[in-house]
């Protein structure tokens, strides 16, 4: 794809050269041993990040930089740290206490990153903390019922907001054909969202689908 056709990266995300290879990067404190250049830009490893893979694969995420973000499935902060580097207020939900301890450390270097030890299946438990009219809902929970979680959390999104979601087929059903799993997930999502784009992330993450959608 020529440069003219490539989707624009959000402000605060750049392609820079690390060890002779051009890679996505954001500017901030390092988190997971990623290389950092002399200007303080750190490589964003798409092999460890579904959102990074969606950007590398040139999906039209609609991200421009500076948006408010609700991130579900933050784990220890690999991807959400990059998001907080270029976004505005970033609420990071994770229900496993161990990774949240690391996530709190990541947030110490980022005053716009707010870790929440909460279950994404129960949005009412954090509705009093997360502002409404969020610009972007990012989801990477890799658990059964991924579409249900997206539908339940639709309430936080602005009408012109975006859902950026990674679906792991094996989390829904280890034996099913991934394409059948993705069809079921998309069917359920369509009760609350209009699907704008889908793309397999297999170059970076086997049997994962990237989805861009907006509230219906
Ligand atoms: C694939 S990992 C996320 C990796 C992370 N997004 C990244 O790129 O750095 C999925 C995470 O979702 C979390 N998770 C699964 N179900 C959840 C739920 N219902 N509520 C909150 N977190 C959940 C898991 O504990 C796990 O840490």
Automatic annotation (TrEMBL):
Region (Disordered): 1-32
Annotated S-adenosyl-L-methionine binding sites: 78-79, 94-95, 119-120, 140-143
GO biological process assignments: box C/D sno(s)RNA 3'-end processing; tRNA processing
This protein's record includes keyword rRNA processing: yes
InterPro entries for this protein: Fibrillarin (IPR000692), Fibrillarin_CS (IPR020813), SAM-dependent_MTases_sf (IPR029063)
PROSITE patterns, per the entry: FIBRILLARIN
E.C. number: 2.1.1.-
Keyword terms, alphabetized: Methyltransferase, RNA-binding, rRNA processing, Transferase, tRNA processing
Start-end of Basic and acidic residues biased regions: 13-26
Enzyme class: transferase
Top-level taxon of the source organism: Archaea
GO molecular function: histone H2AQ104 methyltransferase activity; RNA binding; rRNA methyltransferase activity
Oligomer and partners: Interacts with nop5. Component of box C/D small ribonucleoprotein (sRNP) particles that contain rpl7ae, FlpA and nop5, plus a guide RNA.
Recorded family membership: Belongs to the methyltransferase superfamily. Fibrillarin family.
NCBIfam families referenced in this protein's UniProt entry, alphabetically: PRK04266.1-2, PRK04266.1-4
Known function: Involved in pre-rRNA and tRNA processing. Utilizes the methyl donor S-adenosyl-L-methionine to catalyze the site-specific 2'-hydroxyl methylation of ribose moieties in rRNA and tRNA. Site specificity is provided by a guide RNA that base pairs with the substrate. Methylation occurs at a characteristic distance from the sequence involved in base pairing with the guide RNA.
Name of this chain's protein: Fibrillarin-like rRNA/tRNA 2'-O-methyltransferase
Gene giving rise to this polypeptide: nop1
């Amino acid at each position: 794809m020529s440069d003219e056709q490539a989707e624009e990266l959000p402000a605060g995300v750049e392609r820079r050269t690390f060890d002779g290879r051009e890679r996505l990067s954001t500017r901030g404190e390092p988190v997971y041993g990623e290389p950092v250049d002399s200007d303080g830009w750190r490589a964003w490893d798409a092999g460890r990040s579904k959102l990074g893979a969606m950007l590398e694969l040139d999906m039209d995420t609609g991200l421009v930089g500076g948006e408010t973000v609700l991130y579900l499935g933050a784990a220890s902060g690999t991807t959400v740290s990059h998001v907080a580097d270029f976004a505005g207020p970033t609420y990071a939900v994770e229900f496993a206490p161990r990774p949240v301890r690391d996530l709190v450390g990541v947030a110490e270097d980022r005053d716009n990153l707010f870790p929440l030890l909460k279950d994404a299946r129960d949005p009412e438990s954090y509705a009093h903390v997360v502002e409404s009219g969020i610009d972007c809902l990012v989801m990477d929970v890799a658990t059964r019922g991924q579409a249900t979680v997206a539908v339940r959390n639709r309430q936080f999104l602005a009408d012109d907001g975006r859902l950026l979601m990674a679906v792991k087929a094996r989390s829904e059903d280890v034996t099913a054909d991934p394409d059948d799993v993705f069809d079921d997930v998309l069917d359920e999502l369509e009760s609350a969202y209009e699907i704008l784009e889908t793309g397999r992330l297999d170059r970076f993450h086997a049997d994962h689908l990237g989805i861009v959608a907006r509230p219906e």
